[in-house]
Amino acid sequence: MSEIVVAVAGQPNSGKSTLFNMLTGLRQFVANYPGVTVEKRVGRMDYKGHRFTLVDLPGTYSMTSYSLEERLARDFLLNEKPDLVLDVVDASNLERNLVLAFQLLEMKISMVVALNMMDAAASAGIKIDAKRLSTELGVKVVPTVAKKGIGKAELCEALLNTYQLGGNINDFRLDYGPQLNRSLSVLEEALACDKRALGYDLRWLAVRLMAGDEEVMKLFAG
Amino acid sequence: MTDTVRLDTLKPGDMCRLQDIKATGATGQRFMDLGLIPGVVIKVVRNAPLVDPVELIVNDNYISIRHSEARKIEVIPLCQK
Fold this sequence. Notes:
The complex is a heterodimer of chains A (222) and B (81).
Chain A: E1 3-10, H1 16-24, E2 28-32, E3 39-47, E4 50-56, H2 68-80, E5 84-90, H3 94-106, E6 111-116, H4 118-123, H5 130-137, E7 140-143, H6 152-164, H7 177-192, H8 202-210, H9 214-219
Parallel strand pairs in A: 1-4, 1-5, 5-6, 6-7
Antiparallel strand pairs in A: 2-3, 3-4
Helix pairs in contact in A: 7-8
Chain B: E1 5-6, E2 15-21, H1 25-33, E3 41-48, E4 51-58, E5 61-65, H2 67-70, E6 73-77
């Protein structure tokens, strides 16, 4: 039986942990991230003969390197290279939550979006075209209400499908406007010939370098 | 050129439009994460002199920040209703 590692990411209060519980039930155990006392919850679920190992990443507003939680979440994605990342999005607060979704997409990991708290969005009068969002982002988007266990089967199916597509990584590309795009292209070209950039997505590196990301700068310090 | 003021000088009930953020690094990033970006409309919910926090509504979200942080946000006051 193949084991599929899924990193579960999401902003604080997106219902990430509730959704994690919905998927894994009581099949959980708690570990620490190496060297720090930040809880790392790991859970298992089986679906259609596949074993999924889910890792609950710390809730973060973005994927920069400013806080310990963000660094841990990001390092896990970069170093452990999970098969998939499941981004839990608060549907009632889509705009703010998409910031993290964009940053995850830029890291070029196969991704599925759980459009969670659809009930809260509906009662706030918010309608979301999940299909359209899926087309725009280039990844599967599944409406869920984790609190009530709604969307579980669809989410499992989306995860399995995305995994089986294999190396078919999203072709999402954020438009930073003509000026920044030009500078990013120059940076990307320079990085393409740099051994230190190996194993990272060049566009992502370029964006992070331009943002002055200290951890990414360290890669190129020596 | 419109006159900008610092966000920490506004009173509860005041509305304004965000013009510029003078914060960088972690604070600047967090502001952006919370939706505090140029052009966004902010409503001040509470702001007492000397006492933190300053509470704002941004995109239907309630956000609380420190006075020292609000000082770094430049805004254009909007007319009162």
